[in-house]
Amino acid sequence: MASSRNLFSLFHRHRVIPFEFLGQPSSALFSTHIVGDTPILVRDFIHKALYDPNVGYFSQKSASVGVLDSSIKFNRFEGRKAYMKHLDKIYKQSDVSWFTPVELFKPWYAHGIAESILRTTNLSVPLKIYEIGGGSGTCAKGILDYIKLNAPTRVYDNISYTSVEISSSLAAKQIQTVGEVDSHLSKFRVEHRDATDRNGWGDVNEQPCWVIMLEVLDNLPHDLIYSENQTSPWMEVWVERKQGGELSELYRPIEDSLIKSCMEIIDMPDATTGGSRVSSAMKNIWAKVLPKPRWCWLPTGCLKLLEVLHGALPKMSLIASDFSYLPDVKIPGERAPLVSTKKDGSSFDYNSYLDAKGDADIFFPTDFLLLEQMDHYCSGWMKQQKDGEPLKRGKKRRTLSLDTAAFMEEFGLPTKTRTKDGYNPLLDDFKNTKVYLSVPTHNVK
Question: What EC number is given for this enzyme (predicted)?
Answer without folding.
Answer: 2.1.1.320
